[in-house]
Amino acid sequence: TVTTFIEVLLKTCDENNNVKAEIGTQTIKQWLELIGGTKEKLIAIGPDATLYNVCEQLQYHRLHRLPVVEEKEDDQCVLFIVEHLLLLKFLLGQLETKAAVLSKSIGDLRIGEFDHVITCEMDTPLIAVLRLLSQNNITAIPVIDSSGIVLDQLSRADVLCIARENQYSDLNIQVSSILEIRSKQALSRNPSSPLKPVTCLRTDSLLSVFENLAAHNTHRLIVVDEHQQLQGVVSLADLFRFFLGDITPV
């Protein structure tokens, strides 16, 4: 996963934040051995699991996707992958849009993170961002200017952009350079691809946040005020936590 790649970068960088080029030729097994992850059990679920079982596993393990595995004698067969976004779109189709809770704002419902939002700026070096992502177990960081205006966001997946360009050897590269590389790659694949993060207001209804996440195929919305200043972040995990509560799978 992208998380594995990030942990490898953090594990192998030297005191000058440089990474040896040899990691690009190593196998996945070597990567896992390097970060000590070879003995971890695969987090999966069986084909007879309920929708609630899937949601609780995703929430408890802080995952965006979960393999559905069928046991066959002494072997396992991965049937398909269930994703947070797919679940959201399914649930959106099942919602009773007249339900009172859906018309309430995410601010009133206290959905999202508003008190301790981790941020970075355009001149922040990648090594600092990687440490923030890893240490806080988060998937993205809003990029702001000195006055708190939201300029963009940098996600774990964006780290792959520098891997595609073989520019991961120097982790002192600034956020601005990574975002520029990401934009060029995105436009080459889809000229109409949106280049800025999807935002919402604290006063937006729960239903509109559901619809916004599904329409833009994103895992999070950055919450801003009318001046585009950062207020918080609301994610798919926040929505599932609101409906499911704090749960511990049996």
Overall description:
- By secondary structure, the chain is of the alpha+beta class.
- The chain has 10 helices and 7 strands.
- The protein has helices at residues 2-12, 28-35, 51-60, 84-94, 106-109, 126-136, 159-164, 175-189, 206-216, 236-244; strands at residues 65-72, 75-83, 140-144, 150-155, 199-201, 220-224, 230-235.
- α1 packs across α2 (28-35), α1 packs across α6 (126-136) and α3 packs across α10.
- The two termini are 26 Å apart.
Summarize the biggest pleated sheet: 3 strands, mixed
Rounded to the nearest angstrom, the radius of gyration is 19 Å
Number-wise, the strands total 7
Query: How far do the termini sit from each other?
Result: 26 Å
Bin the strand percentage.
Answer: 15-25%
Low-confidence stretches: none
Shape: globular
- Write down the overall mean pLDDT: 82
Element order: H for helix, E for strand: HHHEEHHHEEHHEHEEH
| Fraction of residues in helix | 25-40%
Number of distinct helices: 10
Strand order, largest beta sheet: 5-6-7
Structural class comes to alpha+beta
Structural key phrases:
250 residues, alpha+beta, three-stranded mixed β-sheet, two-stranded antiparallel ribbon, 7 strands, 38% helix
In short:
The protein is α+β, with helices and mostly antiparallel strands and 250 residues long.
Describe the protein's topology.
Blueprint: H1 2-12, H2 28-35, H3 51-60, E1 65-72, E2 75-83, H4 84-94, H5 106-109, H6 126-136, E3 140-144, E4 150-155, H7 159-164, H8 175-189, E5 199-201, H9 206-216, E6 220-224, E7 230-235, H10 236-244
